[in-house]
């Protein structure tokens, strides 16, 4: 968690650095020549990429590395990938600390060995411990992912241009509103939570690799009752 917090604070520290007057005047002139509609919502001092027109949920004109490409097809491909990674990250961001809190107790209760590392960390590429997990589990996970992907490809072909990136036709709790405005709000919430989850799971992995301490022990106030 210390490492994660440092990542978040590093960017804000630059806000207090001084700027020489000539540079400041140049930037002021450049910004005054641009229309407000052409500026990035995420980076108000920078011009937004042309392909990001604000019509997609969560689009704030942020693509400093140009990953979205220059055409709509590439943009939709990257949006699909972002949503899938976001959903996996949200599950992982919840599952990681839950496993560190309760894996041993559940394993003892059902008479199975705990899969946590000797330090109590969740198994991962950096922490190790993945060799403890049964090969049957990996086969089942990969097979399930393949089935879902194939069904998604079929649905994409059937819907054609009406297909919405990330639509798996799965909403058992009816969380998606029926009206367009409500749908946009819900999709925006999903992508925002997913982006935060991707940063969180990255922070979990790096933090535990550096400090060799479970995140639930490093920051107990997030994962244990205060009373």
Automatic annotation (TrEMBL):
<feature type="binding site">
    <location>
        <position position="195"/>
    </location>
    <ligand>
        <name>chlorophyll a</name>
    </ligand>
</feature>
<comment type="subunit">
    <text>The LHC complex of chromophytic algae is composed of fucoxanthin, chlorophyll A and C bound non-covalently by fucoxanthin chlorophyll proteins (FCPs). The ratio of the pigments in LHC; fucoxanthin: chlorophyll C: chlorophyll A; (0.6-1): (0.1-0.3): (1).</text>
</comment>
<feature type="binding site">
    <location>
        <position position="125"/>
    </location>
    <ligand>
        <name>chlorophyll a</name>
    </ligand>
</feature>
<keyword id="KW-0934">Plastid</keyword>
<protein>
    <recommendedName>
        <fullName>Plastid light harvesting protein</fullName>
    </recommendedName>
</protein>
<dbReference type="GO" id="GO:0009765">
    <property type="term" value="P:photosynthesis, light harvesting"/>
</dbReference>
<keyword id="KW-0150">Chloroplast</keyword>
<dbReference type="GO" id="GO:0016020">
    <property type="term" value="C:membrane"/>
</dbReference>
<feature type="binding site">
    <location>
        <position position="189"/>
    </location>
    <ligand>
        <name>chlorophyll a</name>
    </ligand>
</feature>
<dbReference type="InterPro" id="IPR022796">
    <property type="entry name" value="Chloroa_b-bind"/>
</dbReference>
<dbReference type="GO" id="GO:0030076">
    <property type="term" value="C:light-harvesting complex"/>
</dbReference>
<keyword id="KW-0148">Chlorophyll</keyword>
<comment type="function">
    <text>The light-harvesting complex (LHC) functions as a light receptor, it captures and delivers excitation energy to photosystems with which it is closely associated. Energy is transferred from the carotenoid and chlorophyll C (or B) to chlorophyll A and the photosynthetic reaction centers where it is used to synthesize ATP and reducing power.</text>
</comment>
<keyword id="KW-0602">Photosynthesis</keyword>
<feature type="binding site">
    <location>
        <position position="190"/>
    </location>
    <ligand>
        <name>chlorophyll a</name>
    </ligand>
</feature>
<feature type="binding site" description="axial binding residue">
    <location>
        <position position="149"/>
    </location>
    <ligand>
        <name>chlorophyll b</name>
    </ligand>
</feature>
<feature type="binding site">
    <location>
        <position position="85"/>
    </location>
    <ligand>
        <name>chlorophyll a</name>
    </ligand>
</feature>
<dbReference type="GO" id="GO:0009507">
    <property type="term" value="C:chloroplast"/>
</dbReference>
<keyword id="KW-0157">Chromophore</keyword>
<dbReference type="InterPro" id="IPR001344">
    <property type="entry name" value="Chloro_AB-bd_pln"/>
</dbReference>
<feature type="binding site">
    <location>
        <position position="207"/>
    </location>
    <ligand>
        <name>chlorophyll a</name>
    </ligand>
</feature>
<keyword id="KW-0732">Signal</keyword>
<keyword id="KW-0437">Light-harvesting polypeptide</keyword>
<dbReference type="Pfam" id="PF00504">
    <property type="entry name" value="Chloroa_b-bind"/>
</dbReference>
<feature type="binding site" description="axial binding residue">
    <location>
        <position position="87"/>
    </location>
    <ligand>
        <name>chlorophyll b</name>
    </ligand>
</feature>
<dbReference type="GO" id="GO:0016168">
    <property type="term" value="F:chlorophyll binding"/>
</dbReference>
<feature type="signal peptide">
    <location>
        <begin position="1"/>
        <end position="15"/>
    </location>
</feature>
<comment type="similarity">
    <text>Belongs to the fucoxanthin chlorophyll protein family.</text>
</comment>
<feature type="binding site">
    <location>
        <position position="82"/>
    </location>
    <ligand>
        <name>chlorophyll a</name>
    </ligand>
</feature>
């Amino acid at each position: 968690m210390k490492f994660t917090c440092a990542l978040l604070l590093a960017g804000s520290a630059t806000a207090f650095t001084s700027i020489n007057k000539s540079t400041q005047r140049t930037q002021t002139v450049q910004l005054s020549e641009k229309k407000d509609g052409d500026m990035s919502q995420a980076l108000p001092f920078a011009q937004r990429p042309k392909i990001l027109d604000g019509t997609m949920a969560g689009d704030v004109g942020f693509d400093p590395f140009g990953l979205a490409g220059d055409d709509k097809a590439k943009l939709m491909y990257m949006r699909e990938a972002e949503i899938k990674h976001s959903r996996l990250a949200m599950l992982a961001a919840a599952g990681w600390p839950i496993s560190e809190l309760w894996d041993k107790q559940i394993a003892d209760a059902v008479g199975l060995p705990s899969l946590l590392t000797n330090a109590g960390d969740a198994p991962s590429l950096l922490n190790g411990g993945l060799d403890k997990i049964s090969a049957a589990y990996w086969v089942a996970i990969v097979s399930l992912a393949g089935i879902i992907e194939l069904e998604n490809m079929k649905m994409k072909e059937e819907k054609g241009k009406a297909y919405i990136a990330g639509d798996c036709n799965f909403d058992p709790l009816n969380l998606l509103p029926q009206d367009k405005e409500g749908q946009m709000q819900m999709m925006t919430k999903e992508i925002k939570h997913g982006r935060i989850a991707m940063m969180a799971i990255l922070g979990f992995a790096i933090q535990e690799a550096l400090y060799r301490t479970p995140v639930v022990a490093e920051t107990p106030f997030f994962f244990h009752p205060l009373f």
